Structure formats: structure tokens, C-alpha cells
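hey so i finaly got around to running the thing on Nucleoside triphosphate pyrophosphohydrolase from Bdellovibrio reynosensis. pasting the sequence first so u can double check i didnt mess up the copy paste, my clipboard has been acting weird all day
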Amino acid sequence: MAQTPSNLRQIESLVEIVSRLRGPDGCPWDKEQTHESLTQYAIEETHELVEALELPQSQSNKDQKIKEELGDVLFQVILHSQLSKERGAFGIEDVIESISEKLIRRHPHVFGDTKVADTAEVIKNYDVIKKQEKALSQSSPYSLDVPPLPALQRAYKIGKRTEKLQFDWDDAEGVMVKVEEEFEELREALEEGSEKEIEHELGDVLFSLAQLGRHLEMEPEQVLRKANSRFESRFAKMVELATQDQKDWSQLKLEEKEQYWQKAKELLKAKT
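ok and heres what it spat out for the C-alpha cells, dont ask me to read them lol
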């Protein structure tokens, strides 16, 4: 039996635990994992952290949830570092050193002599430093260079990048015109019935809506997450109301379900 580290409040203890999980007498599941097989968990744990961060402040267990989800994300970081260490690439110390160097390099107003008046100047300097870093990696100054993210979030990031490259609408009203134009093209595609064209135009609509969110200073991924949460709450409430009325959900007509939907919306709205 592996000995439990004496102080579980130290990051070294977590590194030791993960190393033992991957060791000869460790966990069969952990020993089988690769960077590729763990990808889905990195995505899931990050999204669960975001969900905890967005819980209402009034929720009593919010801090506990954030703590737990941060731990799950940290486990992923340590586990990937352990896999890399085993093949002689890098370890957790190298990961810590890398991010520390980056933070120091990108905050010369804190760790250097650079003077800034406000957040706007911080962001301006940050962009200059990032451009210098990209120049060293021989990246084109006009490269979008957007990381692989969920599609809606990536559309937003693409827009932020093209905005800096001065290829953008002047304001939200200009984007609204584009959204309406794309909706019309989607309607035409639906009438023509071409699946390829429908997919194309639907994608353009979603991309344009992401840019509208950007111009409204609303991150579309976050906006959609909140909309998803509202829908889930309303759906659960409408089913609950139907059950209270001793109705068989599977036998209800669409019009009846709509009535329960509207009632659920009003009840939940009254609680906010």
C-alpha cells in the first residue's frame, strides 16, 4: 500500500500522489491515460469550473464548488505534466517556470520600470509585448492566430483579432444589418432545400451573432451558457407543474406544453 503524504496542503504532495497513481503499483486507469485520452476531461473540467464561477453570489456553496473545480483542473495540469516528465519532455517545475516568466514579461509595470496610468495602458502594452513574442516565433503580423476553442467562443476571438487589424463594423447597428442579411440568406437556403447551403448560411448567422455580442461587449459563449441554464430551469419547472396537475407529459399536446412553458417562465421570473 502506498503511503499517504503527510501534508496534503502542499502542491508537492499532489505531484507525489499523481506520480504514484501512474507508478507500477498505481491505478490501472491512470496508468493507461495519454495526453490524447485526457483531452475530453480537460474540456469537461474547465467547463465545470466556469459553471461554478458563474453561480450566483447568493448561492451558499459557491466557494466550495469553485474550490473543488479548481482542484479538478489542477489535477489535469499535474497529470499532463507527469505524462510529459515520464517521456523526458518537461515536468511541473518547467510548467511553473514557463508561466512565471510569461507573467513577469507581460507585466513590466509591476516587475519593471514601465509606468501606466490605467487599465487601457496596461492592455496596450500587453498587446505590444504579445506582438513582440509572435515576431520572435516568426508569426505573420496579420495572422489571426486564434487558439482552438469552442466554436462560438472562437468566433468571438476571431472578431477581436480582426478588430485590432482594423477589419470590423463601426458599431453594433452595422452588425445588426449584417445579421439580418445573413438571416435572409438562410431563409432563401431553407426554401431551396440544399443541405450544404443551409449549413453554410446557418454558420454565417451564428458567426454574425457572435460579432454582435462582441460589439455589445457581451461574450457570446457566456451569454449562451446563461440562456442554456434558463432553458433547463424552465423546462424542469414546466414538467414539475404538469406533474403537479397529474398530467401525463407524453400525452400533452404542444399547445398545452406551451401553456406550462409560459407559466414556468412567469414563476421563475418572479423569483429573480
